[in-house]
Structure formats: C-alpha cells, structure tokens
Design brief:
Largest sheet of chain D: 7 strands, mixed
Number of helices of chain B: 4
Radius of gyration of chain D: 38 Å
Number of strands of chain B: 0
Distance between the termini of chain B: 11 Å
Structural class of chain D: alpha+beta
Distance between the termini of chain D: 91 Å
Largest interface: A-C, 51 and 45 residues
CATH topology of chain B: Non-ribosomal Peptide Synthetase Peptidyl Carrier Protein, Chain A
Number of strands of chain D: 19
Oligomer: heterotetramer
CATH superfamily of chain B: ACP-like
CATH architecture of chain B: Orthogonal Bundle
Structural class of chain B: mainly alpha
Number of domains of chain B: 1
Shape of chain D: elongated
Largest sheet of chain B: none
Strand content of chain D: 15-25%
Order of helices and strands of chain B: HHHH
CATH class of chain B: Mainly Alpha
Chains: A alpha/beta (330), B mainly alpha (82), C alpha/beta (328), D alpha+beta (402)
Number of helices of chain D: 8
Shape of chain B: globular
Chain lengths: 330, 82, 328, 402
C-alpha cells in the first residue's frame, strides 16, 4: 500500500472511499448489463479498474472547484457526488437524466456540482479547462479547475497548446492523465515517442508527477500535494496516473489488441480488494460492514435502474429548446 | 385603293397563309391555290383577311373570280372603287 | 438634430471595444498581437496602455487553444472577446466553436451558457491570395447555437459588438479588412444596435438587392446608378446570417416582386442559396421573375489585382444584372 | 426460469454467431461468468451472464447466426417455471414527425389586386388569351395553376365564341417558317410510330359509301349568306358534325380497344391537320356531338392555325375517341385512313366533286363525296360499320338538323 501509513485516514473516510469505489464498480457492471438488453444505446465506455484515480483525485477537490471529464466519465461523476439515478436515467435517454436525456453516457453535466461534462472530442475540453482557470484567476476566485483525460489526448495538438497556455498564464489547472496504456486499440508504445508522459509537462515548465493509479492511497497523496501546490502558487500541475481498464474500450470491442494474460495480471492489482484488505488490516472496517456497504450499493443501483425505467421521454416538440438561451442578460 | 396597294396587300396576306412561298412570283393567270398549295381552310382564311383589310365583302358566288392573280386584282379594284 | 461624425470603419470597431471594456469589467480582449503590437490591423491600438495586460491579452499562435480558453472563460463567468486575426485561421478553432461553443447549452439540457464573442477579419482585398482572402460566412451560418453577424456598415462597426455583449449565446462577428480604412459619417451618438433584424438601407419598388458585409456599400452604389436610369432598387442589409430575419427580405420581395442576392462568398451552398430557397418557399407567388444571384466565382482567390477583382461581383456587375432583369 | 438473450454489444451490431458454449446444461452460473463466445464483425467476444442459477437448456446450436435479442438459452434461477424476461422492457417512443417550427401564417401580399398564379399557368394563359381575372385558383394559397387555365380553355372552346384576332395569323407565319427541322422530324417520327403500331396490331376492315352533298352544300350556301365572312362555315364542319351524330347512334365505334372494347361517353373527334412543312397533327374537337356546326368551325379556326404554328399542347392531342381525315380538293378521289391506336375507327372524306348520280331512276350530275370507314375488326364487324355509314349519310341529307 502507500509508502507511508496515511495517518489522516480515519475509519469514516476509509469506509466512504471504499464505498465510492464499490459504487462505481457495480454501477458500471449494471450499465454493461442494461446495454446488452438494449436499454442503454449508442456508445458506452466503462471505468472498471480505474476507480482509484477518480475517487483519489476528486476527494482532494472542494465544491467550488471546476471538474471536466471525457466520455469515460461515470467514475468521476459518481465520485463528485452525482446521484446514480440521474446518471442511469441520462443513459436511458430519459428527461429525468442530468442533461435531460440529451447527452447520454458521454455527456453528463451538473452545474450545481460544477461538473462541466462529458466531452467526447479527445482533448477538446483541455482548452476549456485553461479558460475556466483563467476566469477564476481574473475574478480572484480561489477555486481550481481539474481536467481528466487519457494518454490518447496527450498526442492531440490541443494538449500541447493547453499546457503551454496554462504555464504561460499561470492559471490553476490540475491536468490528470489516466494513462491506461491503450488509446482504444493502440498501445502506448505505438502512440508516444516519450512514454513517460509526465516529462511532457516538464517541457512546459509545469510541475509534473506520475503515480500508481491502482493504489488509492498513493493517488490520494499525490492529488493532495498537487492541489495544495496549485492553491498556493496558482500555477498548473500535471498528474499522470498509471492505471488499467479491465473491460474493453467500449461495448463493441473484441480486444484484439491486448492479451488476456495481461488483463489477468492487472486484475491482480484491482484497487478495490487491495484497499479493502488495507482497511481490514488496519481494522478501520469489519467484514460485516463491507457486506453492508455492498448491500447498500446494490440497493442504490437497483433504485437507479427503477428510476430510469420509470423516467419519461422528452416531448419532440421540445427539440429546439436551448439551441439559444431563453434567459436575457442577468 | 390603287392597284399597287391592292397587289401589295394580296401578296402580304398570301404570305401569311403560305409563309414558305413567294407570292410575288405568281404568273397572272396561274391558279393561286394550286401554285401555293393552299387548302380550302387556308383559302377561307385568305378571303376573310382580304375582306377585313380592304373593307369589302366577297360573297361565296364570287369565289370563282379569285382563282388567279389577274382576275383577283381586277375584281378587288372594282370592289374597292364602288 | 444630432451632429454627424466622420470616422473610419477601424475607428468605429475600436470605439465599440473600448466602450465594452469600460462598461463591463468581465469583458477582456484576447487574440494574436492584440496588445503590444496594437492589433494585426491596428484595431486595438492603444488599448493595452489603457486597460493593461490582464484585459488586453496577447496569445500564442494556438487558435484552438485560446479560442477554447475563451469559451471556457465564458462558461466560468467572464465575457471574453476572442479575436481570431482573420477567418482564414478560424479552421483550426472550428472544433472548439462547433463542438463546444455552439453545442454545450443544448447538450447540457439548458444548464451551460457560453456568452463568448468571436471577432474575425474576413473577406477579399489587397491581393492576399487564396489562403488569406476567404469568405466563409456560410460555414458558420450553417451551425445552430451560433449567432452570426456581418458588419457591413460603419453604424454596425460602431454598435454590433455592444449588441453582442447583451447576448448569453456565442456570437461570431465577421468584420471586413478591405473596409478598415474607409471613412463614412455616422451620428455622433451612435452606440449599441439591435443584432436580431435585417435592415432596409435604401427604399425601392422595382427590385430587392439582398446582401451583407462588403455587398452593402456596393449595392447602395449600384442603386444610386440605377436610380438615374429610372430603376428604384431597394437594398436589404441582412446583418444577421443566423438566425436569419427572413421577414424583412420577404416583405421587400412581396413589394418589388424581383430579387437579386449579392455576396462575395462562393456561389454553391452559400448564404444566397438559403435566401433564394426561402423566397421560393414563402413568396413564390409574389415573383414576376426567378430570383437571381451574383456571388463569388468558385475559385481559390488569385493574387493579381485584375483577377482578384474579377472573382467577386463589382458595382458595374450589379447594375448590368439588374438592368437585364428589369428589361429582358 | 430466465431467458438468456443474444446481447446487444454495439451501436451498429444487428446479429452474432454463437461460436462456442463455455457452459453446459446443469452447470451453475454466477454473475459475471463467461457463458459463451460470440463472433461479430469486430471479432470474437466473450459473453458474460448477469443472472445466477443453473443453465437449464441451450436453444441455439454452435455456428448458428441469430439477431440481437433472440433467446439463446434458459437459466433456472430457482424462482419457478414461468419463463420471464430478465427485466422489464420499455421501447423508445414513437417520435411524431417534427414539422417546421410553426411559422406564422404566410403574410398576405401587400397589394390586394395581385393575382396569385404559377409561372407555368401564366404562360399558358397568355398564349391562349385567357382573362385571368375570371379564374378561381385551386392551387396552393388559392393560386391559379395549369389545370385551372386548361379547364378554362376547354370550357371556352365548348361554349364561348373566340374572336379570331387579325394579328394572330400574322404572328403564326413567322413562327412556322423558322421552325427548326427537328420539330418536323420529331413529328414525322411520331406519325411513323403510330402508323406502324396501327398496321402491326389492328386488323382493319374497310367500307366505302358515295354520298350526295347537294342538300348540304345548298343549306351551307344559304346560311353563309346570313353570316359575316369571319363566321362563314366550310363543308368539313358539317361533315364533322354529321360523323359526331352518327357515332352517337353507333357507340361501338366511339371507343378504344384496350384488352376489350372500352366505350367512351364523350365524343371527341380528332381532325387530321396537314402541316405545310410536312407531317400531320391530330387535335381533338371535344364533345363534337354537343357543338353546333358554327362552334365546330370556330374550334377549327382555333386549332388549325395553332397546329400549323406548332402551338398545340400535348393535352389537346391525346383526347380524341375517333378520327376524321379529309383529302381536300385537287388530289385523290378518296382516302382510306389507318386507325390511330387505341381508337377503333377512322373516317376518310374524299374530294367533293361533280359526279353522275342516279336517284329514283333519274341520272343527274350531283356534288358527291366518297366516304370511307376503316375499322378494327377486333372491336366491330362490317354490319356495324355499314350501319354507321348509313347514319352518316342520313344526317348529311338533313343538314338543317345538324
């Protein structure tokens, strides 16, 4: 587990973090099931295996901080506290969903939680993050903007333009790269001349750190240090989390690009059992409580599916609403 | 109306009915309808336009006098004089 | 009677930016060379000294980066004016404009407004050749979620930006580099203008000349010449290319029963294609003759002056066309 | 008992091939176990099961391709025999067709007196001297459309005399002189096609009868005296009316042959007009039976010049139910016509000429006309044809009742 025992981890926090990871895991598995029954359509990208990154980083942020994610965003949304009901309903396309059913799995938004989406263009949200941090700086706000993306995005021009602008303007952005070793079907060594991605941040004079994304404690610690640095200096930070997705890139993927043995190898580093063992060893939790957490999560998942099933379809006559704003200048 | 004017009108009206022909080439005694390949329908059209243009009335009995240029012109001079 | 003041199109643009910066502290200008250099076309000259580097921000050559940053800043409470030096460089920012700015409000079910203003120098002139002479209004006018304006007169150069400031939706401003040095008179107290309606710039009864941007002054000049030949042409300045104010040009066509649409953009799939379709759909029985169009010749704009001039409709072309339409 | 279905694995997946069962009936299944391998266009994919229980029965053999959603196997979850879906299904909504956002009603055009008419209708109206103000439009927004104008034209032919404006004929000649060769070529081809089809398909029989024209010509001369020159009639108008009345009495000839005799209630007589540049056109005189001789003459005054000026519309060339051809003076004595398919008869009038004629034992010189009938033997027989010729002759002998 993490190099030094994390004294700040009390039982309550530990149990909460474990529950968050279990919630994400079970939610994603149920989403996969509903997809095979055609309840969820379109594209579905699951976060199974990377739970420690979302939970570890998001718990370091506060309510005022802005958060932007990609299409593999359910973990970040749940870690941020978005209600599973409105996420499942959104994936069913119902108007009770967080984006009125219009966005689907790849476009979850909740301005009350400062959760600025689900962006499905790889790297497309990095410039947005820089701009939001710029706005905070100009308005002397203390919040920071965190931005999650995969190692695929690190090859986009917008990644390089954004890091340069963030460093140049010294704006409070936390760039979090979830390096899960495969950009859809292309392994890291086929996409990056420099595989140690944190070195790309250093090239722009940005403090950059790589961390084991399968170890929740390590991620928490790195994230805490990163956020602290940003709040103090106002400067950006680049955190690379080495992680692995246990399932396919999306639902329709025969995973021809990787060996089954490699997946099994990484499953041994599953962040959930590893963290559970740690809590049990440090008797910060009992097995009975673990079972109870599992049951609570199971119920939450059932409720979210029921909520989605009972959801309603937005009227087609609403189609053109919100193409333009209905409010006038505040 | 003098003879020249009548002749010009006759040629012009014949040209209307048989545009691809040249009525001025007609010999005085030549049968107009045969020469210019004019059927009974077009012949009536010709008579009607003559009556309107020269403000005369040509009864059916006088049709015979209109068969060739010479008699037609003579007939029309006499008709317009009176 | 208000006094008139004579100023260039450039000065009118600058007055609008200055007024916006003074009026609302959330406003800031960002773009390549807008600060120390004073603006590629000197539109923002002197503003850095007056407002400081925080509000007049020079940016690196990263159109997608800084345009996206502008959109992000708008999401988070600012009112950025992003200058994309010319529309020719806007292709690199299309992902941010079409996939983010135009889409976020609708896709988020009405949660996220993007009150950003994008200014772009546009159009032909001064022999800048194919890559620096584009007229891409039709691209932007195709995208729902964007408000697309064409600054065809000094009055609009003075006031359109201020109108855009009152909108909560992303506004694209097409400014015309060939008009920057042009001097005209406008009322001294000119200021904010409406940005939702087209405008009848000159009344007429025989034919409607429907145009925008650089076409406005050309059509007014042509109408002047036609008047001497007894033809009263009405000139409609579209001003808003999306969402189109069709009521104004339809009313005009119903009055004149003839229409000629004039623009510099390439003819196929252009603004005029849309205007003609709407007239056919909604004023068909008011037409005495088919609607005609005078547009850009469909070529990459050539460098030599005589070819550049031949690539877009000129005043004489407009006059000849109208005369042929009225007396075939 | 739970149905295990072929899972939906992707936005564009329609079916899958079951390659291999990884579990056999009787095996215990846990949530997440791999139950089978499915082959898709993206490659082989392991399929997991989401329900716990015992694999009861396999319904799809290995190697079989089945669409998404079909039942692959049954799983006994120990909750009774009744076969259930694994969970409720709610189909996506039937999306109503989205119309344009409600545009405001089309604003009325400013000037009140402006006539709404399609460009095509306007063009037809102008070339036929139709007064638009009298028409009521049936097109969109109450506009006048082609149909409205054409109806007005045919009604006008049926009931209102049309002054034959003087300049009309003047305009016609230039028109036909510079007509391009292609038009007369195309007419030649059209006639060729019709005549060869007629010759190929129609078994003609031919009848002939010489008819005394003296009473008719006498009646015509007397009544022409009472008419202005413009309204003077020609014998052909009487012949057409007589044919129309005869067809009224012998309806089998006023018909078409389209797998069986199709009698026509309207009697529209096609009149063969020879063109000065060669070729013929056959415009129809609509409801010839209800028109007076004067009205038939007027129709000819309208149709013949327009035919010769190539200004006839296709609709005017396609409605005849019977045809008349007349050879006129100075040529052949009689003419045997070829039937215009799908009609079943054509009458041919020879030249009206003075001939010896015997009547009641007296021999005299009379103006006579040799009338022929060519008829389709599939549709009628000689008896009907000759009864028609007899009726025709009877009407010609009573011109005043035409």
């Amino acid at each position: 587990m993490g190099t030094k025992a994390n004294s700040s981890l009390d039982a309550n926090l530990g149990q909460n973090l474990l529950k968050q990871m279990i919630l994400i895991r079970r939610f994603e598995e149920r989403a996969a099931e509903e997809y095979t029954k055609s309840k969820i359509r379109g594209f579905l990208h699951l976060y199974v295996g990377e739970e420690a990154v979302a939970v570890g980083v998001v718990q370091a942020l506060n309510q005022e901080d802005y958060l932007l994610s990609t299409y593999r965003e359910h973990g970040h949304a749940l870690a941020r506290g978005m209600n599973p009901n409105v996420i499942m309903a959104e994936m069913y396309g119902k108007q009770e969903g967080c984006s009125k059913g219009r966005g689907g799995s790849m476009h979850l938004f909740d301005s009350s939680l400062n959760f600025f989406g689900g962006n499905a263009i790889v790297g497309g949200h990095l410039p947005l993050a820089v701009g939001m941090a710029l706005a905070s700086k100009k308005q002397n706000k203390k919040n920071i903007t965190s931005c999650f993306f995969g190692e695929g995005a690190a090859a986009e021009g917008e990644f390089h333009e954004s890091l340069n602008l963030a460093a140049l303007w010294e704006v409070p952005v936390l760039f979090v790269c979830e390096n899960n070793r495969y950009a859809m079907g292309t392994a890291l060594k086929y996409t990056h001349s420099m595989e140690d991605l944190e070195k790309k941040g250093e090239a722009y004079g940005i403090r950059s750190v790589a961390v084991d994304g399968m170890d929740l404690l390590a991620v928490m610690q790195a994230a805490a240090e990163a956020v602290e640095f940003i709040r103090e200096t106002g400067k950006p930070f680049f955190l690379v989390c080495k992680t692995y997705r246990f399932r396919a890139h999306s639902m329709f993927d025969a995973e021809l690009y990787r060996e089954k043995s490699e997946v099994e190898e990484w499953k041994k580093k599953d962040p959930i059992p590893k963290f559970k063992e740690y809590l049990l060893k440090e008797n910060l939790i009992s097995q009975a409580l673990v079972d109870e957490l599992e049951r609570d999560v199971e119920q939450e998942i059932e409720n979210s599916v029921a909520f989605a099933e009972n959801g309603t379809w937005e009227e087609a006559s609403n189609l053109t609403r919100f193409v333009y704003s209905e409010l006038k200048q505040p | 109306m003098n003879e020249e004017e009548i002749k010009k009108t006759v040629f012009q009206l014949l040209k209307n009915i048989a545009p691809e022909t040249d009525p001025s080439l007609l010999m005085p005694e030549e049968n107009i309808r045969e020469a210019l390949n004019i059927d009974s329908f077009d012949a009536l059209q010709f008579i009607v336009s003559l009556c309107e243009k020269l403000k005369v009335d040509i009864p059916e009995e006088d049709y015979g006098k209109t068969s060739n240029l010479k008699s037609l012109i003579g007939y029309l001079i006499q008709k317009t004089k009176g | 009677m208000t006094k008139n003041v004579s100023l260039t199109y450039r000065e009118a643009l600058k007055m609008a930016i200055r007024e916006a910066l003074h009026k609302d502290e959330r406003v800031f200008l960002m773009g390549e060379d807008v600060g120390r250099y004073g603006g590629a076309f000197a539109v923002s000259k002197g503003l850095l000294q007056e407002f400081g580097p925080d509000r007049i921000m020079d940016v690196p050559l990263s159109e997608s980066g800084f345009t996206g940053a502008g959109i992000g800043a708008a999401l988070a409470g600012m009112r950025p004016i992003v200058e994309v030096m010319t529309v020719n460089f806007s292709l690199l920012a299309m992902d941010q404009l079409f996939n983010n700015a135009a889409t976020l409000l609708h896709m988020s079910g009405g949660q996220l407004n993007v009150p950003v203003i994008i200014r772009m120098g546009s159009g032909i002139g001064r022999q800048l050749a194919a890559q620096h002479s584009h007229s891409w209004e039709p691209f932007f006018a195709h995208v729902p979620g964007l408000i697309v304006l064409s600054v065809g007169t000094h009055e609009d150069a003075r006031g359109m930006l201020l109108g855009a400031l009152e909108s909560l939706d992303p506004v694209i401003l097409f400014e015309y580099t060939s008009m920057l040095n042009l001097e005209k008179e406008i009322p001294e107290d000119s200021g904010v203008v409406d940005i939702s309606k087209s405008k009848v710039r000159r009344e007429g009864t025989d034919i409607s000349l429907i145009t925008y941007g650089t076409g406005v002054y050309k059509c007014l000049e042509a109408a002047e010449a036609l008047e001497k030949e007894g033809i009263k042409a009405e000139v409609i300045d579209l001003r808003v290319l999306r969402p189109l104010d069709e009521a104004t040009f339809l009313a005009s066509v119903r009055k004149t029963h003839r229409a000629l649409v004039v623009e510099d953009a390439w003819k196929s799939v252009s603004i005029s294609s849309e205007i003609v379709s709407r007239i056919m759909e909604k004023a068909f029985f008011d037409l005495d003759a088919p609607v005609e169009r005078l547009c850009g010749v469909e070529v990459p704009i050539p460098y030599p002056k005589h070819l550049e001039d031949a690539s877009v409709p000129q005043v004489s072309d407009i006059v000849e066309k109208v005369k042929k339409m009225i007396k075939p | 008992m739970i149905k295990f279905l072929m899972p939906n694995l992707g936005a564009d997946m329609e079916d899958g091939v079951l390659v291999e069962w990884r579990k056999q009936p009787g095996d215990f299944l846990q949530k997440g176990d791999i139950i089978a391998d499915i082959d898709t266009q993206k490659g082989l994919i392991e399929i997991e099961v989401f329900d716990e229980g015992v694999l009861e029965k396999i319904l799809v053999k290995e190697g079989q391709k089945v669409p998404v959603g079909s039942v692959l196997a049954l799983i006994n979850d120990g909750k009774g025999e009744e076969i259930r879906e694994s969970s409720g299904d709610n189909p996506t909504p039937e999306v109503p067709k989205i119309l344009e956002p409600q545009e405001q009603a089309k604003t009325k055009s400013t000037e009140e007196h402006r006539i709404k008419i399609s460009p095509l209708a306007r063009k037809i109206a102008e070339s036929n001297g139709i007064d638009l103000t009298l028409l009521k439009g049936t097109g969109p927004e109450g506009s006048i459309v082609k149909e409205d104008v054409e109806k007005a034209i045919s009604e006008r032919i049926a009931n209102k005399p049309v002054p034959q404006p003087e300049e009309k004929t003047k305009e016609a000649p230039e028109e036909s002189v510079n007509v391009s060769r292609t038009t007369s070529d195309s007419i030649r081809m059209a006639v060729a096609a019709a005549m060869s089809k007629s010759n190929r398909e129609i078994p003609h029989y031919f009848l002939e009868k010489r008819m005394d024209m003296s009473k008719a010509l006498e009646w015509m001369k007397e009544s022409n005296k009472t008419r202005p020159v413009q309204k003077r009639i020609l014998p052909v108008a009487m012949l057409i009316k007589a044919v129309a009345k005869a067809l009224d009495e012998v309806p089998d000839l006023n018909a078409t042959w389209e797998n069986g005799l199709q009698r026509k209630n309207e009697i529209n007589i096609g009149f063969v007009v020879s063109l000065r540049s060669g070729g013929i056109m056959v415009p129809a005189i609509l409801q010839a039976d209800s028109k007076t001789v004067e009205e038939i003459m007027e129709t000819l005054n309208d149709l013949i010049p327009r035919a010769r000026a190539f200004k006839l519309r296709s609709s005017e060339l396609s409605q005849s139910t019977f045809t008349i051809t007349s050879i006129g003076e100075g040529g052949a004595d009689k003419v045997f016509g070829l039937i215009y398919p799908p009609q079943v008869g054509i009458v041919g009038f020879g030249e009206i000429s003075e001939q010896p004629f015997a009547e009641e034992g007296m021999l005299g010189i009379r103006p006579v006309v040799d009338v022929t009938l060519s008829a389709d033997h599939r549709a009628t027989d000689g008896l009907i044809g000759s009864r028609f010729l007899a009726a025709l002759n009877k009407h010609l002998q009573n011109p005043e009742s035409l």
